[in-house]
Amino acid sequence: MTDLLWLWIVLGVLLLAAAGSALVVPRLRRRDRDRAPEGGATTLAPERDRADVPETATVDTAPPPAAPVLETPAPVAGRMVRLRDRLARSGSPLGARLLSVLSRDHLTEDDWDELEETLLLADIGAGPAGELLEALRTRVRVEGAREPGAVRELLRSELLNVVDPTADRTLATTPQQVDGVARPAVVLVVGVNGTGKTTTVGKLARVLVAEGRSVVLGAADTFRAAAAEQLTTWGARVGVETVRADREGADPAAVAYDAVDTGARDGVDVVLVDTAGRLQNKAGLMDELGKITRVITREAPLGEVLLVLDATTGQNGMQQAKVFGEVAGVTGIVLTKLDGTAKGGIVVAVQRELGVPVKLVGLGEGPDDLAPFDPEQFVDGLLG
Q1: How many CB atoms lie under 10 A from the CB of residue 150?
Q2: Direct distance between the N- and C-terminal alpha carbons of the chain, in angstroms, rounded to an integer
Q3: Among 192-196, 239-243, 274-278, 312-316, which stretch is predicted with the lowest mean pLDDT?
Q4: If both were cysteines, with which of 137, 197, 368, 375 could 163 make a disulfide (CB 3.0 to 4.6 Å apart)?
Q5: What is the DSSP letter of 124?
Q6: Is the model's pLDDT at 210 over the cut of 90?
Q7: What pLDDT, in 10s, does the model give residues 56-108?
Q8: Residue 40, pLDDT above cutoff 60
Q9: Confidence band for 372, pLDDT divided at 50, 70 and 90
């Protein structure tokens, strides 16, 4: 009996020992699995451990992006000569047809009708066309010019008169003193979408930078996100700051005010303000531009209101010009795409319609293809 008892005791001890080993080994294996082996490859931690590792633990060793290289705008002097040369190379239909008719031995009424038709097709306008023809009739009758050189000089003189070389085409971009404090000159740029208005603001900034002026841009066309992006890009290329809204559809007047305030605080020479190109109705346009003008003039005098027109639209753009002229107090005109049209007479027509001069012209697609308008260079380009 005693031997049997001892046998049961020994079996019990063995069973307990076996059970203890089964419990201890899995724990050891689990600890070994969680711990990276020394001198070996790193073992991934379980998901519960990786979740505690912050994403910022990864260090980006890539070099920082290089600062943008600023562009140096082309000098302003000589830009209008490029327009003259382009017009001359294109064989301007206006100048060529006028010279061809005037060089005929005997000018009949049919010839004068042809001249009138040529002028009207060039969008010079009925009034200026009549004045020009009357002056040409008188001079041809008195001087009897028939030689090509004499005819060209006669036509050049009369075309120059209707383009008006005496008009003041300077831009008011000189800072003003207000109560003894220097304030930047403010230029408000208006016009419908599609005329190249925002691009013109960017190109005008380059003109001013080329002349040594400091500039701030105001992206007050808040209804098109692309307009603010486009203007910012233009400014960055020449180191000019652009003030813009933080959201689409923001108050344009607030952006214009912030731009002028920034320009005054930083002591810049000129603030260029781009505006929305909507023309839904005269009342809405008047309200919007009126508000912009009021808030701007709290900070600085409004030096210029430039209307941007697409020269290729000809007489179709005249109605737009009338509306803006009535509600915005336009002081000057910018004609874009002037080198791509045979309708050079629009220069005369728009000046007569609004009573303000063409001050700048767009010569092409290049960043420096904006030039101060020179009547003599323009007429010479028309005549070839």
Answers
A1: 14
A2: 138
A3: 312-316
A4: 375
A5: -
A6: yes
A7: 333 333 344 455 678 989 888 888 887 777 776 655 667 888 888 888 888 89
A8: no
A9: very high
* Pairwise CA distance, residues 334 & 195, whole Å: 10
User: Residue 3 is encoded by which pair of tokens?
Assistant: 């031997």
DSSP reduced 3-state for 214: coil
Give the DSSP letter of residue 56: G
Residue 131, Cβ neighbours under 10 Å: how many?
17
Measure the CA–CA gap between 185 and 171, rounded to whole angstroms.
10
Where helices occur in 35-147 by DSSP H, the ranges are: 47-50, 79-89, 93-102, 109-121, 126-143
Q: Which of 334, 336, 373, 374 is nearest to 354 (CA)?
A: 334
Indicate the burial class of 176 (C-beta count within 10 angstroms; 0-12, 13-18, 19 or more). Answer: middle
Higher pLDDT, 206 or 192: 206
Cα-based torsion angle of the residue sequence 50, 52, 58, 64 in order, rounded to the nearest 10 degrees:
150
pTM confidence score: 0.79
Enumerate the β-bridge partners of residue 218. Answer: 243, 273
Report how far apart, in Å, the C-alpha atoms of 352 and of each of 259, 322, 378 are.
33, 11, 17
